[in-house]
Every structure is written in C-alpha cells, then in structure tokens.
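Worked example (supplementary).
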Amino acid sequence: MVNLINSKNKFKKVPGILFGLLAVVCIFSITTPYFFTLNNFINILEQASILVIASFAMTLTILLGKIDMSIGSIMSLTGVVTGLMIHNGMPVWISVFLGVVAGALLGMFNGYLISYQGFDFWIVTFSSMGIIQSLALVITNGATVPGFGNDFRFLGDGSLFGLPVIVLIASGITILLVFLTLRTTFGSNVYSVGGSEQISKYAGINTEAIVFKTYILSGILAGIAGIVLASKVNSASPIAGSGYEFDAIAATLIGGTPFEGGRGGIVGTLIGALIIAILMNGLNLYGFTPPIQFTLIGFIIVLIIIIDVLNEKYKAKKWGK
Amino acid sequence: MASNNIKLLIKYARFFILILLFSGFSLLSPHFLTFQNQMNILAQAALLSMVSYGMTLAIVTGGIDLSMGSVLALSSCIAASFLKSGNIIGGILIGLIIGFLCGSINGLSITKIGLSPFIATYGMDWVARGLAYVYMGGTQIYGFSAVFRFLGSGQFLGVPALIYEMAIMTIVLVFVTYKTIYGRNIYATGSNKTATRLSGVNTDKIIISIYSINGLLSAIVGLLYISRLNAAEAVIGTDFTLNSIAATLIGGTPFSGGEGGVAQTFIGAVIMTLLTNGMNILGISSYWQNAVVGFVILFSLFIEKTGKVLSEKRFESVSKTSINA
Amino acid sequence: MSIKNDVILRLENITKEFPGVLALDRVSLEVKQGEVHVLLGENGAGKSTLMKILCGVYKKDGGKIFIDNKEVTINGVKDAEKLGIGIIHQEFNLLPFRDIAQNIYLGKEPRKNLKLVDVIDRSVMYKKCRELLDSLEININEYALVKDLGVAQKQMVEIAKALSSEVKILIMDEPTATLTKNEIDKLFNIILQLKAKGVSIIYISHRLEEIKIIGDRVTVLRDGKYIGTVEVCDTSTDELVKMMVGRKIENLYTRTYNKIGKEALRVEGLTLNKRIRDVSFKIHEGEIVGFYGLVGAGRTEVAKTVFGEYKPDKGSIYVFGRKLSKLTPTEAVKNKIGLLPEDRKEEGLNIKMSVKQNIVQASLKKVFPSGILKEELELEISKKYIKELNIATPDAHKIVKNLSGGNQQKVVLAKWLLTESDIIIFDEPTRGIDVGAKAEIYEIMDELAKKGRAIMMISSDIKEIMGLTDRIYVMYQGKIVAEFDHQNYNQEKIISFAIGKGEKHG
Amino acid sequence: GSKSQQANDASKSEKKKVVMILKNLVNPTWQAVKKGGEDAAAKLGVELTVLAPLKADNNEEQIRQVEDSITKKVDAIILVPADTKGIIPAVEKANAAGIPIINVNTKVGGGKTETFVAVENYDAASKVAEALAKKMGEKGKVIILEGKAGAQSAIDLKNGAVDTFKKYPNINVVASQTANWNRAEAMQVTQNLLQAHPDINAIFASNDEMAMGAVEAVNQAGLTGKIMIAGLDANKDAIQAIKEGKMTLTCDKKSYDQGYQGVEAAFKILNNEPVDERIVVETTIVDENNVDQYLQQ
Ligand SMILES: Nc1ncnc2c1ncn2[C@@H]1O[C@H](COP(=O)(O)OP(=O)(O)OP(=O)(O)O)[C@@H](O)[C@H]1O
Ligand SMILES: Nc1ncnc2c1ncn2[C@@H]1O[C@H](COP(=O)(O)OP(=O)(O)OP(=O)(O)O)[C@@H](O)[C@H]1O
Ligand SMILES: [Mg+2]
Ligand SMILES: [Mg+2]
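After joint prediction of all chains, the assembly is encoded as:
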C-alpha cells in the first residue's frame, strides 16, 4: 500500500530509464577502449544535441497527448530558409531569427488546425509533414544550400569555455524547458491538457490556447534544431531533417512519456535521446556495419523498454495494485 | 432530403474527393481517362492497398504497425532465395511463415509484455530490416520463373492479376471485418479494450492475431512485389510504412481506434495512387507530390467538418419541430 | 440554522438543446442564501446540464441568470468562478498523474509576481493545500498522486477542490455516490459549516434519505421541465418520488424469497496479493448474496477475481461443483458467469459503439449464427431488450455515449441478460441511478433470482443491500469478517463489522 | 585504464587502422566498393572497418561516423560523402586531428584531402547520356528518372544527363521525375509517364535499379525493343537485361576498383609513399557489344 499519509514521493520522479542509460554506458565502457573518455563524452553530447532539441519538440506535443509528425520537415525547411537568407546577404543573426520565426509559423499552422479547427493531430501533422517537405524541396529546387561563414558556423561547430556551443545551446534549452514545464502555469497546463482536455476545460483553462502555444513552441524548437543542424554540417539540405521525427518519438517514449500524454517529461526525453546517441556512438566504435547496427539497435531499444515495463509492473505488484 | 444529402456527403466525403480528382485529371489530360491508364492505377494501388489494410487493422484496434515495410523485405528476401532455386511452393510458404512469425512477435510483445504498439513495431522495424540486410549481404536475387511472375505481373482477360488479387483481398477483409464475430471483436477491442475483455472476449488473442495477419499481409505483398519487379533485395518496402499510414488517414480511419475500416482505406489508397499518376502525367515536379497529398488530406478534413456543421444544423431544426409537434 | 430569505440566485426559463434532445425546457429555479437546495429528478432529467450551464461549462440556448438580483452572463468557467460559483462535478475531474495540490489548484495556481511568465509559487501552493486538507480533516499527503487514491479519497479531494476558492454558491452533483457512512457524515458537517457561513448549496443526489437530513428545499425536474419546488419539512418521500417519476412507486425493494436451489458458485481461500485474503463463500441458485463493506474493502477485487480479470495467488473457484481450471473472463463467460462492473464507462460499455452492438457484445454467437452477422436478428434482439428494460433511447443505433447514466447501466444489464448467465455479479448496480430506474433494476434482479439464477451483489448502500439480499457477507480490509442471514439483519451490527469494530464471530 | 590499454593495442598490432565510410550499404554499388576495399586490405595487411549511415545517404550520420573514427584514433579515413558540402565540417575535424582523408567517388567540397579516387557522378552520367544519344541517332524524346529528391548524387547524375542532352538540338527531355532510386517506383512512374508520352524513344535512369523498373514497365506495355533504356552501375541483372535485349546500356563505374584503389592509396599514404592528387578510375559503357565479357565475370 502506498503511504498516502506522509510520503513526499519525490524520488519517484527519477525516470526508471536512467538505469537503462547507466547500463548502456557501463557495457560500452567495459567493451570498447575508446568509449570511456572525456573526449568521447563531449563527442556524444555534441552528437546528441540536435536529437535532444528535436525530441523536446516532440515531447511537448506528446505531453499534450498529441504528436507532431512534421518536426523533421520543419527542421529541413528552417535550415534551408536560414541558409538561403544568409546567402542572400542577410546578417546572420537576422537569418537565424527569421529561421526560428519560420519554425514558429509552421507550428502555428499545425496548432491552429488542431486546436481551433479541432482536426485530428495525427492527420494534421502528418499532412503538414509532406507539405513542408515539399516546400523545402521547391524553394531550393532540390539542391543543398552550400557552406557558410564562420559566424554562423559558430552555432553548430564552435566552442566556448572548452565546450561545444551546440552542447551549450542544448543545455540551455533543457534548463529552460525543465523550468517551463515544471515551474510555470503554462507547463502545468500542458500536463493537465494531456491528462484530460475536458477536466482542464472544466477548470477554466483555455485548452485551445495551450494546444496552440505548445505547437508553436514545438515549431520553434524544431526550427532551432534545423538551424543548428545546418550550422553543424555547414550546409542546408532540403531533406536534412527527414527521419528525425521517428527518432524523436523513440527518444520520448524511451524516456517515459507515453502517447497518452499528461506524464513523463523533458528529463526523461533527455535520457532517451542520450541512450540513442550513445548506442550509435558505441556501435560505430565497435565498427559494426549497418546491417548489424540495425538489428542491434532494434533489440536494445525494445530490451530497454521491456525492462522498464517489467520494472513498472513489478513496482505496481509490490504496492498491491 | 437535403439533410440526407449532407449526411451522405460526410459519409462519403473521401469518395467525393476521389471523384473530384478523377474528373479534374480527366479534364486536364487526355491521357488520363484511358482504359490502359485506369488499369495502371488500380494495379499500382493494389500493393499499397493491401499493406494499408494491415495498417488499418492495427489502427482500428488502437495500435499501429511500423514494421510492415521491413517485414515485407525480410520475408520476401528469404522467400526469394527459395524461389530462385525453383521451389515455388516452398518459397511462398517460407515467406508467409516468416511474415506471420514477425507479426506474432509484435502481437505477443504488445499483449504479453505490455509494450506500446509503436515501440514494439518500431523495434521490429529495425530488427527485420537489419536481418534482411544481413541475409542478403547487399546482393540482389533476380529473375524468377514465369509461373511465379504471373502472380505479380501477369494478366488475365486483359486485366492485371494484381487487380484480381486486390479485389479478392478487399472483399475478404471487408467481409471479415464487417460481418463476422472476429470483425466485431476487432472494433470492440479498439473502442474499449477493458470492456470488451470483460464481455468475455479474449482481447489479447484478437490483438495478437491482428499483428500476425499484418505480418502475413506484409509477406503476401512482399511476394507480389518481388514477382512484379522480378527481383528481391533488402531495401524494398521502406516507403510502405508511411504510405500506408497516409492511405489509412486519407481513407478516414482515425488513430483513436474502433472506427473506420478497410473499405475506407481502399478509397484512400486509390486516391494516393491517382494523385501520383495524375501528377506524373501532367508533368508536375516530383517536389510537389508530398505537398499535394498533404493538401488533399487537409481538404477532406474541411469537407467533413463543414458537412458535420451543416447536418447538425438540420438535425437540430428537425428535432425542434418534432418536439414542438 | 437561520435561513436568510434573500434570493441569491435566480434562473429563469433556461433552455438547452443537444442534437436530438431538448435537455432543458424553460427551467426556472430560485436559491436562497445559506440554504441547501436539493435538485431532484430521474436520470437524464437535466440536473447536471442545468448545473453545467450555471458553472460555465455549457452555454445556454435561452433564459436568464440573476445573481443578487442582477442579470449576469456566464460565458466560461472563469466567469462562474468570479461570481463565486463552485462545483463538484458528477464525474471525477481529477488528473490521475498529478498530485493532490496540483489537482486542487488546477487552473488557479498561486503565482509568483514575475512579469515575463507565470511562475507557480509551489511553496504557497502546497502550504495552502495542506491547510485546506487539514481544515476538511482529509488525511492524505498533498504530494500523493491521484491515481493512488481510493474512490472515496478522490471524492474528498474533489470537495476540497471546490472549496479551494471563495464560493457563494456551491453545486454538489451527487457527491455521496461513492462515499461511505463515515465520509458522508464528514461531508454533511462541512455542508453545515458552509451554511452557517451563508454559502448556498445546490445538492443533487439519488439517495432520497439524505434529503431529509440535509436539505431545506427541493426542486424537481422531469424530462428537462420544471415540476415544482417544495419545503423538505412539509413533504414526504413518497410525494417527492411521485413528483420525480410522475407515478407512485409502491415498493422500492421487490423481493420474493425463493426456495434456494443447489450450490452455483463456491469460492475457497481466494487470495490476491494483499488486497484480498483467504476469502471463501458460496452462492446458491435463486439466491441474492450481498457483499457489504467500506470502499476499498476489496469487494470489487473479489468480483473481478471470480470473473477471471485478476489472477489470484491462491484459492479455487467452483461452478456447480466443478473446479474452474483456467481463470480468464473468456472462461468465465463460457461458464455462464456475468459481471456488471462498477465503472460502467471504462469497463462495462463500448461507449463509441451503438446500443445494439453493446447489448450483443457478450453473446455474439447469437447474432452471428455460423459466424456471420445477421443484422435483422441483432436489431430484433436489441429492440426486445430496449423495450423490456425500458431503455430510453431513440433507437437501437444510438451511440451509447449519449445516453444518461441509468440507461447506460440498463444497456450493460441487457448485455448480461442476453447471455442467460447462471451466475451474475452486480458491482454497485445502482450507483448514480434514479429511484425509478433503481426500482426497475431491483425488479429485474428479483426476477432473475426467481428464475433460479445465482446473484452476487456488491453495494455500499446499506438499505438496498438489506432490502434485496438473502444473505450478506461483510468485508473489511480484504477479508470476510461476518456473514448475516436475512432473518437476522441488523444495520448497526453490519456497519460495525464493516468499519472493523464488530466482535469476533461469524 | 583506457590509455595504457590503447598503448598495448598499438604495440600488439602493427596493422594500420583504416575506416571506410560509405553513403550507404543498401545499394550493390557500395557493396562492391566495400568488397574492393576489403580485398585490398586483406592483401596489404590493413585493418579495415566499413561504416555507413543507417538512414541511407544521411549526411549528419556520416559526420558522426567521422567524429567517432577520430575518437577511435584511426590512421586514415576513406570517405565517400553523401553530400559534397555537408561533409566539410567532418573533413576539417579530421584535418585538425591529423588523420589523412582519402576521398572516393564523390568529391568532397572543402577541407584537405590526400587524394581523390575519381568517378564523378556528373561525368559518368554525361558519358551514359552521350552514348544513349548516339544510339538514338541524336534525335528523339527522352525521359529521365531521378534519384531521391535532394540527394547529392541524384542532383549530379541528373545534371550530367540534362547538360549532355542539351548539346543535341534534336533530343528533347520531355519529363523528369524522381523514382527515389527505387525499382518499384521507377516502374510505376514509367507506366504513368508512358501514358502521357507514349512516343518516347529512350529512358535515362540514374541507376540500374530504376532502369530495371523501367524495363519491367516497358516490357508490360509491350514496347520492349522500341524504347531504349540506359542506367548506371552495371548491376548483374542490368547486364543480364542488356544481354536479353531488354535494356540498352549501362555504365560500369568500377565500384570494386574504387574501393580497392581507395585502400591502396591509404596504404601508400600511411607508408609515406607518394600518391597522385587524382586517381582516375575509368568508367566503361556496357552495351550489347561488350556485354558477354561482363557476363562472364
Ligand atoms: N454533451 C451532451 N451531448 C448530448 N446529449 C447530452 C449531453 N449531455 C447531456 N445530454 C442529454 O441531456 C439529457 C440530460 O442529461 P443530464 O446529464 O443533465 O441528466 P441528469 O439529470 O444529470 O441525469 P443523472 O441523474 O443520470 O446524472 C440526457 O438526455 C442526456 O442524454
Ligand atoms: N493499496 C492500495 N493502493 C492504491 N489504491 C488502493 C489501495 N487500496 C485500495 N485502493 C483504492 O481503493 C479503491 C477501492 O478499492 P476496491 O475496489 O477494492 O474496494 P471495494 O470494496 O470494491 O469498494 P467499492 O466497490 O465500493 O469501490 C480502488 O479504486 C483502489 O484504487
Ligand atoms: Mg447528472
Ligand atoms: Mg468496488
């Protein structure tokens, strides 16, 4: 029986998947000589950063009990938009800003149709995924936007205080989002709407506005991810972001935010994204070819989740549910 | 009368879009409305629609199956090596068994372990694809016997074999889902699993069987696919997953489960194929194709919503008069 | 208890229409300051709808609302809150994965004074929450997640939620449906305190005996129409019932005690990881056996374990002397056991599906002879039950979601009647159901017993369980602590066993 | 402990560690490059690891693999970039780490590379288009099947073909659509295009996979022999199809040689032997004249 009288049940908020992360780290540390080094950890963080930001975009919408399938396309489009503007002589910071605005607008498009028109979120974001992808291809005529100057590259490739800027950006966003989701009314409302839209409505929360704003935020985050990606690879391909939506969903689910929404959160997703990045890093260090990597990643993801699910079941059983 | 029309409009919104597209393309291009081209469209829709039926079944039960494309690849690659050695029956059987097994594993990990369908099938997607790569080692198997090739590229009475196969599959699945106990239980499970289980239905069995059927469908489509193309390799079928989700959504089966169905998905698959065909014929840049599909989906949402609003208005005024009377 | 005579709230000619239903037809209502105004009516009479209009959840189609004699417009929940209207909804409105404080202050969290974003002042929130819970004598940790609470605890949290802001008018839509005696007493105390402070309370309940205890005046609705308002002290229960259902209900509890047949169900030593311990009992043909206990005593667990939904750690179940080897709901249904679960919407119904589809769900073989659907048969069978059970629905194709609670319960009942089960388990069959429908359900249960069916009835309503059963098992903390025969029913004794105070016997 | 372990590894194995990063491993071309590389490595005593992005042709993943290889302190990297421009940051990192880069197949657009084992897609496509144009008698209507929209090699191949056809005033490119490198899609697109343009003379496919899709479509339309079909890669089934007269020509990009020469160049560089800045691998057009020679291989 849960002690309902005087448990502060705070420790329960540590996502169980943390153990999955530790397990993966341990295994790779023991079996590959190059894994457990400071350099490699920085390397992993750097590699995870973009996925982390993209996954946050996904997590917010999943917390709402919805989804955003258009994240990858938004990444491609914002990267391309920013890149084209830089090449057309716009100052870098304005281009970056406008790229983020583009992300926000696309998020707004999704959010408007879902919240104010009441359309199904799967269908809307799935459609916009195709539409936005097409836009990116059309405005570049399919070609990659070539390299940039050093000021733009600083975002994705520079370093500050000995740390990659990209890691600092991802960390900053993480802290902001943790604060936003756990300490502000907006964040609380996101969880509530995810828990039940009707209950939230009955509590006087403007659920439409919350959904709308969350999709804008998701668009902004996807936009940032796309821009940072363009900076990191020093070019903007119109298909750069495709496929990220599935990795982002995987990171979110591994991190313990279920599709039903209303629970889980940013920290779990951070861990989920790190697990994915570490897996890819470790398997590269082993030198496995893609066929083997494919098989192993599938197995490991499922294994981690199975352990997590069984652990939950065990806990539930212990408490007599 | 008018209210009936509007109700019909909502119910068949997707169908009207199909007709709209059909008439549009017919007007825009003289090459569209030929017997040959219509046969083309249906034959092209065949494989997509069959995979989409599986996706639809998973979605109706409240799940999703992201592994269909990869299971298709794995089963048909392994089958191909048998087919190549001349053992047609054996090859087909092996392919079906592998598909079925992959699907059953999905179903078991969803029901018995309690994984979310997304994760279970996402994992299977990686694994099956990986195994297909490992098995093929980057090679291709090509050149099958004429008998086997008939399945995917033959013609009978001037109509491609694929169209017959699609017709049979559609009829069987429509019948099973709308007319049998099993079908009823699929919908019940999707609409409320607990209540259905508490009505004495073994919902785990329903879900396992659905994913197993999906595996089987993937394998069938895989076999037809390699028969049609006369070659098998590990990459095949990657687009099927997203396209089948698109066909299901265009058809109007919602992700919430318990609603929609195979017949709607048939319309969805035909709309998708028609779009590509029409755009190819009109020479519209391939860059636009995704956008057009997206806009068509959104457009159908608007039609549906407008229809609903209109019909509710009518409904209300009708009920008002009846209450006052 | 002084009731001031100022009218604080006046509703005039409120009208509300849903597609196909005129839920409220020019309903008027006057509530005085500091009174407990009971709203009475059958299921679907429009009580909840009227209250939802008052608290801003629904928009009215016509009519006016006056507060303190000034006309007000209520366009949303926030408007109602500003006017001092609070509500405890009929259904739980708690988010399972958020903690108590977060639920209580949902949408009105204390904020820190920051310009840029609204930051929740957590320390204030949890402190205020603790104080609120203490003032209501609710002994739960403010950090506990709602999903870990029992039904009664949830209801108390709902009450705290309604009282967390200053209210002048408090609406309680069936607050006692899930409470037991103790908590009901606690609730009534709270109501008295509020009254003393001049708060007006609109109280909805299907438990007529409560009206006498707590109510001042009663307004009755029927079919969305206003019937009348009366003083509680001048009106007998029979008169109220007549106003409600438009006829007199002669005898609420119909029960013809039959000759008891052979043993239908025997349960031996059932144990389920700490929730139920060593439970053994028997039910015979033609017998209605009651299970009484506090909420959380484990009655539902017993029912669901017998039905195969939970896997027991120990114990065996015998149906007509035959031991069940496999315990799953499918097996249970095969062995002709039926279960009306306590949570209709989550466990009893496919609310997205139609009335007819729900009715036939547990006996699909009947409408799918040789596995293929016969639509005429399905329609015919469901029409028969709609008529027999008096289910208020325009037709058999209607989606169950849009039926009222009582009618939904009848659909579940129809489902199990159709299976012709030998053993039927009723878990809280009349929770939230009006007297008229209750009487009908009792009649059906009696009918079933007459036909020799064995019935297990779980109820928290001591009157109904005593009025209807042959025997009662009392449960306390997962164990059967006493057994009574209907000849020696004694309300006090039964309750004292249920709260763990009964002397050791039985 | 990892430092000393590394030292041990180094002293134990004299073998040089070389990593080869390909665009993907799902296409026979890259499998052949891999095979060539492995054979060379076996012969020269080089420890070769072959990596490729899991998402085929994913540029960012390739960058990660370069980064991971730097972490692993390999001695040389053989790189086939998925994106000419997008790979530059990784090349620069390798430069900074002092790891030599041997560029193969697709040109790296910046940074320092030791050598380029060159088979430019653009050039190969031009060569195929040229040969096709000759066979068409320098006149007629052509359809182009492109690779995946937005992918570097798709763009290069398409441009190579388009620019070449432009040189012939009587050759008309009537349609150009993507079929995503994919046989099934190529078949479908070809079927559709044949409806609008039943009078075409030739199809240029950016790889043999798509060419084979076109072969199937043309075959089903009963137009085999009436429409010329050209592809690239010299896959086995394409060669078979040329032999059977279903396909007109393809281009042997000597994938095996690319891999082999890449490793050979790496070996030389690591032993401080000189290598040319550009190692040209001659491509060959395969058509009915030399197909038998290929069939024997
Ligand atoms: N959202 C809705 N959509 C359609 N019909 C509705 C809706 N809410 C209520 N109704 C209908 O309005 C009528 C009044 O319902 P209401 O819930 O107000 O009854 P009630 O008196 O509270 O009944 P109960 O005692 O069962 O709670 C019923 O016929 C019900 O089916
Ligand atoms: N140990 C526990 N941990 C969490 N929740 C509990 C625990 N014990 C009881 N509960 C809660 O109490 C509620 C009632 O329990 P149960 O269903 O066993 O009681 P019951 O005797 O059937 O009462 P009723 O049928 O009147 O609800 C359940 O919803 C459950 O969530
Ligand atoms: Mg009500
Ligand atoms: Mg209970």
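Two points are worth noting when inspecting this output. The two ends of chain A are 8 Å apart (CA to CA). The domain at 7-320 of chain A is CATH 1.10.3470 (ABC transporter involved in vitamin B12 uptake, BtuC).
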